Amino acid sequence: MAAPVLIAVEHVSKRYQTRSGAVDALADVSLAVDEGAFFTLIGPSGCGKSTLLAMIGGLAAPDAGRVLVAGAPVTRPDPTRVATVFQDPGLFPWRTALENVEFGLELRGMARGERRRIATELLGPLGLRPFAEKYPRELSGGMRQRVAIARALALDTKIVLMDEPFGALDEQTRVLMGEWLLEIWRRTRKTVIFVTHSLQEAVALSTRVAVMTARPGRIKMVLDLPYEYPRAIEAPEIVALRAKLWGEIREESLRAIAEST
Amino acid sequence: MTIALARAAIVAALVIGWEIAARFVSPLLAAPPSVVLPALAGVLTLEAFPDLPRHLLVTAREIAIAYALAVSAGLTSGFALGLYRTLGRAYGPILAALYAVPAVVWYPSLMLFFGLDSASKIAFGFLLGFFPITLAVLAGIRQVSGHLLTVARAFGAGPLTTFVKVMIPAMLFTLAGGLRTGLALTVVGVIVGEILGSRAGIGSLINHAYGLFRTADYIALVIVTLLLVVASDAVASLVEHRARRWSE
Predict the structure, then answer these.
(1) Is residue B158 located within the same domain as residue B217?
(2) What is the pLDDT of residue B246?
């Protein structure tokens, strides 16, 4: 049952210097993410979830502690192992949907024909084939984010980091995108670390959820979700789980609000 | 269609107004279109100025050299100031202050330094073209979204790849606009330089015709200059449009 640990975060701290002084973003955070997990980080705004994700992706360095991926310390982005999806899709506006998906493969020096084939294959199941030649400005928010996800999946890495990927979408699109992501994850068995504000997403998708505290971010609790997919949101154990998570997060969110005002 | 008609209407109105106004003034000081047209024909058939092609060539050469220098220096200094913070903070304000000085005040010293021939015109054209290109590069760099740079880094792009695949495309439209403005101002610089004092070039012919009160010839030469400038700007605008289509 126990899958090997793929990502280990060990006693990580991070402090940012701002104009109004130093801000502790993370304080002594430790986590272990098993291979194949759908690991969700949830917590109030500004609790350092995104910072933590950036460290795992090699985009930020911890002040103390270390992050290990497959046993090796992370020092810089490694697109052969880790792909990232951001809240803002960050598509290149001068590239078509297809060319955006090809970006990572192009950087690897893959031949044009081959990367085009891979990108085209990816767009199909995402319902984007008819939009392959469209520019990002011609796509809806949900489509853009699907292109960004396809761009990350094209790297075919073991690990996918997702920083509130559906945060800017409306509720309905969000639920559908969640279902769609779940299907991809179940098919590919990638290890996903997913940052969200949404309890609904957390309980519907995750194998494990870590609740973070208000700033400075610490891990408050880690919950296992050994339930079958797809999960019925009205099932009693899911309702109970959601209530329990909300209890934990509510307290932290209240603290975060109190501190920010 | 409506736009073309409106355009034709204002040109016609101006020509008619010009014709009427010029008839009330001494022919030495103003030539009406009915006189300028034959003069223009004389200029174009090389009757009035047999060595017009040579002068045009001199001007074209000066513009080409001045523009090539302005583009290379403008891009270099723009990227140096925009990409290296310390340089930008040290020299950016100096550049902006220099740009605020009307460039023509430098021309006498350029003539003294570079002499009456082509070199001073090239220097002046360069001076006028250099600033808009540098400033466009600086503005373009500021336009590049930090998020796109982060995305590129996450996908494994090093500094050079990021520059070529993200920065340049992201700033291309602004850059093309700056290159176009730079060309227009280089042309202005070279021709103004020739008019203010030279032995060859279209500007020297203009000055010559004007000095001899050959007013109709003078206006005809101005029209020839205008046509050349409009043509060069049309080419530049075409390039700019392609850049816009590509980068937006």
Answers:
(1) yes
(2) 62
Residue whose pair of structure tokens reads 């002068």 in the numeric block: B55
Indicate yes or no: CB of B156 within 8 angstroms of CB of A107. Answer: yes
Hey, which residues 87-106 in chain A have their CB within 8 Å of chain B?
Answer: 88, 90, 92-94, 103-104, 106
Judged by CB atoms closer than 8 Å, whether chains meet at B155 and A107 is answered as yes
* pLDDT per residue of chain A (261 residues) written in tens, 0 to 9: 567 899 999 999 999 888 888 888 899 999 999 999 999 999 887 788 889 999 999 999 999 999 999 999 999 999 999 999 999 999 999 999 999 999 999 999 999 999 999 999 988 877 888 999 999 999 998 899 999 999 999 999 999 999 999 888 888 888 888 988 998 899 888 999 999 988 889 999 999 999 998 888 889 999 999 888 888 888 898 899 999 999 888 888 888 888 776
Instruction: Tell me, yes or no, whether B9 and B95 share the same domain.
Output: no
User: Residue B26 — pLDDT band, cuts 50, 70, 90?
Assistant: confident
Domain regions of chain A by residue span: 91-156
State the pLDDT at residue A261: 62
Residues of chain B contacting A106 with CB distance shorter than 8 Å: 165
- Measured between beta carbons, which residues in chain B are less than 8 angstroms from residue A83? 154-155
Number of domains observed in the structure of chain B: 2
User: B20 with B119, same domain?
Assistant: no
Question: Residue B123: which domain range?
Answer: 31-247
Q: Is A107 close to B170, i.e. CB distance below 8 A?
A: no
User: Do B223 and B111 lie in a common domain?
Assistant: yes
Cross-strand partners of A69 = A7, A72
Cα separation, A43 vs A252, in Å, equals 7
All residues of chain A having their beta carbon less than 8 Å from the beta carbon of residue B247 are: 93-94
Nearest to A94 among B153, B154, B246 (CB): B246
Assembly ipTM: 0.90
| Residues of B engaging A, defined by a Cβ cutoff of 8 Å | 145, 147-148, 150-151, 153-157, 161, 165-166, 169-170, 172, 246-248
